[in-house]
Design a protein that fits this description.
The complex is a heterodimer of chains A (150) and B (338). Chain A is an all-alpha fold and 150 residues long. Chain A has five helices and no strands. Chain A is globular, with a radius of gyration of 16 Å. The termini of chain A are far apart. In chain A, 39% of the residues are buried. Chain B has 13 helices and eight strands. Chain B has one domain: Alpha-Beta Barrel (TIM Barrel), CATH 3.20.20. The longest helix of chain B is centred in the C-terminal third of the chain and has 18 residues. Chain B has an eight-stranded parallel beta barrel with strand order 1-2-3-4-5-6-7-8, surrounded by seven helices. Chain B is globular. In chain B, helix 3 links the parallel strand 2 and strand 3. In chain B, helix 11 packs across helix 12. Classes of the chains: A mainly alpha (150), B alpha/beta (338). At the A-B interface, helix 4 of A face helix 5 and helix 6 of B.
């Protein structure tokens, strides 16, 4: 939802705190759940992630989530799906070159990141999306990676 | 158009593909453009618009207009999302004669598999410079029904080039028997929102491997001054060669059309007023361009200037000469030095 997305960038600091507090809980419960049901709940979890993040951030389910590094603005809403900053075509009013009625995702991201505690993260280089993960749950992947790391 | 025969190329002087100048210590490429910049000369680059044609003499004819005026020639890659001769082909043709072409790669039309193949192919044909671009959206061109690719973005593309060149592998990790020795650059537009992020954006590009930066059209000197001052402060001009872009406007109407129809072009009202007030608007546009070149050269941290004169390419050499930015230096050109 466009309005919810703009709200997220405006309140990026609060969202960041919420994200930092909630993601370990979500990931921990997913790990426990995974041990019990061994992947049987992957579909409903993916559905829940799609609905929650879809409402809050217009999440496109790229499966490579970087929200916390991009000012709580999902870069996959950029028509060029740029993940490392704006292109050179941003309109003088800060709107998108391709969709004139939409605020440039990176104008939002930059403003959002300014408000965040870990605002240096927007400078981290994000390599292009792994398209194999498209449509899959970033939550489950992160939880599994956590398990492997331990 | 000129015939093939009218372009005299002494076969003895034709570069062997993939084997240009000897590589100097500390250089990544074997190209002349890197040499000029690293010698500390004020460099001039320009843009060649690849023809809507399958005739190579059209490429040679256009390049010859820049002789002795520029150090490197950008070959645009489907600029404005319009189809023209491919930038790889134009660069290969130019490199064969000995010019220093800059291969523009836009992320709009090709995925990572195609782009890595192009980098290898261009390097094999003697192309020494590459410029990573996002690219205008397909909706800007005359085939808006095309599929937009944007598999990589310019920063991922720079990372890719750096990996191929320095680690001699493809993105997959598969080994290359010979790495592409490319001097890598990218672009920045300091004149559009979010303006306050643009120096950071340039820093990110330099972190990703950009060794030179060409900017979008500058018609707003105060904005460029602020941008360059911050870049100098943050030490970025020590890490990359920055070449602000300047352009020539054919008339006040062209300027108005450009700023409302071409994404990312910022032209202040004062420039338009000046053009409107001039007797000969075309001449005035060139005068503005010459003045901008001179002002760019005065800025701290600047390594050269990038002159964009779409459909006015024939005036580039004259404008560069009038500006005096090259001093006594005469950039390489095929005819005299062969």
């Amino acid at each position: 939802m466009y309005k919810a997305r703009l709200f997220a960038s405006k309140h990026a600091r609060a969202y960041e705190a919420m994200y930092n507090a909630s993601s370990p809980i979500i990931l921990a419960s997913l790990r426990v759940l995974n041990k019990i049901v061994k992947g049987k709940l992957d579909k409903p979890i993916t559905w829940a992630e799609k609905k929650t993040k879809g409402f809050l951030f217009d999440c496109q389910m790229c499966g490579n989530c970087v929200l916390s590094t991009t000012g709580m603005t999902c870069p996959m809403n950029c028509p060029k799906t740029l993940r490392n900053g704006p292109c050179g075509g941003v309109r003088a009013n800060g709107n998108c070159e391709v969709k004139p009625e939409m605020k440039c995702v990176w104008v939002e991201a930059w403003a959002g990141s300014k408000k965040m505690k870990h605002n240096h993260k927007i400078q981290e280089i994000q390599f292009a999306v792994n398209n194999e993960h498209k449509g899959s749950s970033a939550w489950i992947r992160l939880a599994n990676e956590d398990v492997k790391a331990k | 158009m000129v015939s093939d025969e009218s372009i005299k190329i002494n076969p003895e002087y034709v570069y062997h593909p993939g084997n240009p100048l000897p590589k100097l210590e500390g250089h990544v490429s074997r190209g002349r453009f890197e040499r000029v910049l690293k010698r500390g000369e004020f460099a001039v680059t320009t843009e060649l618009a690849p023809p809507d044609s399958a005739d190579r003499t059209e490429v040679f004819h256009e390049a010859a207009m820049f002789d002795h005026a520029v150090d490197a020639i950008n070959a645009t890659d489907g600029s404005g999302a319009n189809c023209h001769m491919s930038s790889v082909a134009v660069c290969a043709l130019l490199a064969h004669i000995g010019y220093s072409p800059i291969l523009q790669i836009s992320c709009r039309d090709k995925n990572r598999i195609a782009i890595q193949g192009d980098i290898l192919g261009a390097a094999a044909m003697g192309v020494c410079n590459v410029l990573a671009l996002t690219g205008d959206d397909v909706s800007a061109g005359d085939q808006p029904e095309a599929k937009r690719v944007f598999d990589l973005d310019s920063i991922s593309l720079l990372t890719t080039i750096q990996k191929m060149r320095d680690e001699s592998t493809l993105l997959s990790g598969r080994r290359l028997t010979k790495a592409p020795a490319m001097f890598a650059g990218s672009t920045i537009n300091p004149f559009v929102p979010p303006v306050e992020s643009r120096v950071s954006q340039m820093e990110k590009k330099i972190d990703a491997g950009a060794q030179f930066i060409q900017t979008q059209y500058c018609f707003d000197m105060p904005m460029l001054k602020d941008f360059m001052a911050e870049a100098v402060d943050r030490g970025l001009t020590e890490r990359a060669f920055i070449l602000p872009g300047v352009g020539t406007l054919a008339s006040a109407n062209t300027a108005k059309w450009l700023r409302s129809n071409v994404p990312g072009v910022h032209i202040p009202d004062s420039i338009i007023k000046r053009l409107e007030g001039a007797e000969n608007q075309k001449k005035e546009g060139q005068k503005i361009c010459v003045e901008l070149m001179q002002q760019v050269k005065e800025l701290e941290g600047v390594s050269g200037v990038h002159v964009m004169a779409y459909k006015q390419e024939q005036y580039v050499a004259e404008m560069v000469k009038d500006s005096g930015v090259l001093g006594d230096r005469k950039p390489w050109a095929p005819k005299n030095e062969y």
